Amino acid sequence: MSTAHPEVDRPVTVGIVGAHSTGKTTFLAQLASALRRQDVQVATVADLGEQAQHHGLPILHAHTWTSTFWIVTRGISNELGTWPHTEVVLVDRAVPDALGYYRAALAYRDEQADPHLTSQLETLVRNHSRHYDLLLRSELDDTIPLGTAKPRDQDQRFRQLADHHVARVLTDLELPHQLLPSGDREEALKRTVEYVTGRL
Predict the structure, then answer these.
(1) For 98-146, how does the pLDDT look when each residue is reduced to its tens digit (9 = 90+)?
(2) Which residues lie across from 17 on neighbouring strands?
(3) Cα–Cα dist 87/161, whole Å
(4) From CA 91, how far away is CA 97, in angstroms rounded?
(5) Model's pTM, two decimal places?
(6) Which CATH number fits the domain that encloses residue 22?
(7) For residue 58, is it left (φ>0), alpha (ψ between -120 and 50) or beta?
């Protein structure tokens, strides 16, 4: 268990953020498989975009404060639910990601957010992100097409805005992170496995 906050008994936690169709889910699946081969107990917290849509909440370029707040709070709840049952939790779209997408949606629509409401989100995201032992940001490569496995926003301008604003959230909230390159990720996978097993 991590000792970053001695009063909190939790698993080693790795979160990933970044624009859609940048290989986040694939990388986490590879990481989970590699860790399980070493007999490490792993839980994964899934991307909440489809669940948000199921509840009638707008996502991607239509993100609102409400949908962002739902994704952040549901994501935190899902993460906490894994803590008593696993050694490692892998988070597909850690909570800073939702804030980045909200900012991207506002920029896309040329809208201004309510500063008070935005501050609430930023405080929530910053405080919870202290529980991530490692944050990874996937690199956007515009030459790689959008995936077809699930409904996605095909607007490349929004995809670029999402990449920019997710990165900006990490900088603005002073959240340490590592860049996950868009090319060969074997070395990144090896380093991440070594980091996680070294924290156990």
Answers:
(1) 999 999 999 999 999 999 999 999 999 999 999 999 999 999 987 766 6
(2) 137
(3) 35
(4) 11
(5) 0.92
(6) 3.40.50.300
(7) beta
In tens, the pLDDT along 64-85 reads: 999 999 999 999 999 999 999 9
Q: Which two tokens stand for residue 119?
A: 């501050």
Asked if residue 3 is part of any domain, the answer here is no
Q: Give whole-number Cα distances, 70 to 4, 61, 122, in Å.
A: 27, 16, 14
Query: Phi then psi for 134, rounded to 5 degrees?
Result: -145, 130
Q: Quick one: tokens of 187?
A: 């070395």
Helical H segments across 37-86, by residue range: 49-54, 65-82
Q: How far is CA 30 from the centre of its chain?
A: 16
**Has residue 5 got a pLDDT over 60?**
no
Number of C-alpha atoms within 13 angstroms, CB side, residue 122? 15
* Backbone torsions φ then ψ of 117, nearest 5 degrees: -65, -40
Q: Which domain holds residue 188?
A: 12-199
Give the count of domains, the chain.
1
Report yes or no: 17 and 75 within 8 Å, Cβ to Cβ: no
